[in-house]
Design brief:
Number of helices: 3
Number of strands: 0
Strand content: under 5%
Radius of gyration: 29 Å
Order of helices and strands: HHH
Length: about 90
């Protein structure tokens, strides 16, 4: 394993530093090792593709849900009209 000899100064807020340190500690890693691993595993193009796929699926699901709601509302409206017609006939007899 290579020994780390280079520094990368990164400014963070006090809150961010506490959060990073807490996550690193929970993972059983030093803050430096945690940050090295996080940086090594970051793949923006892969992450973007995954997010785009999730967004596409969400758009399809939302459209499907919206159509189902429209169908349900149309059914309720038609049902209400049938009930009103039945009640009107009953009153006229």
């Amino acid at each position: 394993m290579n020994t780390a000899t280079e520094r990368i100064p990164v400014l963070v807020t006090a809150t961010e530093k506490r959060q990073i340190a807490a996550v690193a500690k929970a993972a059983g890693l030093s803050t430096g090792e945690f940050l090295r691993r996080a940086a090594a595993s970051f793949r923006p193009s892969e992450d973007d593709k995954i997010l785009e796929g999730m967004i596409d699926q969400m758009v399809k699901t939302t459209a499907s849900a919206s159509a189902a709601i429209d169908d349900a509302l149309a059914y309720v409206e038609a049902s209400n009209k049938r009930i009103a017609a039945l009640e009107k006939r009953k009153r006229s007899h």
